[in-house]
Write a structure and sequence with these properties.
Layout (H helix, E strand, L loop, with lengths): L9 H32 L6 H22 L4 H5 L2 E5 L7 H16 L3 H4 L10 H6 L1 E5 L5
Antiparallel strand pairs: 1-2
Helix pairs in contact: 1-2, 2-4
Length: 142
């Protein structure tokens, strides 16, 4: 890892995650709820599994798109954070997918994967530990 890029503090990562949750809510409102409401108004009711696949693919395309292109979602840019792999390089597609998939149970199981950072030697979230990724703070020059 570049010595100029310090690991992001837990406080900073949680702040970014809170901002990310607001953006995710907006994304789901526009990309899921509005289209589904229009379909229901037209009398088209989709099976529940299709609805879950829609949510999953919407969130997957948002996160993987940003992580693979710049290593940053919009909240991460605001908080001057970047997602990298353990060799301080951009994420590989399979690595980004693994992080995304591991984040679901990490967050949804009462936040156990976030609490993991309290006992992890590098203060990493569980899904970052599993995927071999880390979040760094960018320099002013970045």
């Amino acid at each position: 890892m570049n010595p100029n890029h310090a690991p992001a503090s837990l406080r900073r990562r949680l702040g970014s995650l809170l901002y990310e949750s607001l953006l995710t809510f907006s994304l789901l409102l526009v990309g899921f709820w509005i289209p589904q409401s229009l379909l229901l108004a037209a009398g088209i009711a989709l099976p529940r599994v299709v609805l879950w696949v829609h949510v999953f693919l919407l969130l997957l395309s948002y996160h993987l798109g940003f992580w693979l292109k710049t290593g940053q979602t919009l909240p991460m840019k605001t908080w001057k954070l970047r997602l990298i792999n353990s060799e301080a390089a951009p994420l590989r597609p399979a690595q980004a997918l693994l992080r995304f998939l591991a984040a679901w149970p990490s967050i949804l199981c009462f936040g156990i994967g976030l609490l993991w950072a309290c006992v992890d030697r590098d203060r990493q979230f569980l899904h970052d530990r599993i995927a071999g990724t880390r979040i760094i703070v960018l320099d002013k020059a970045d």
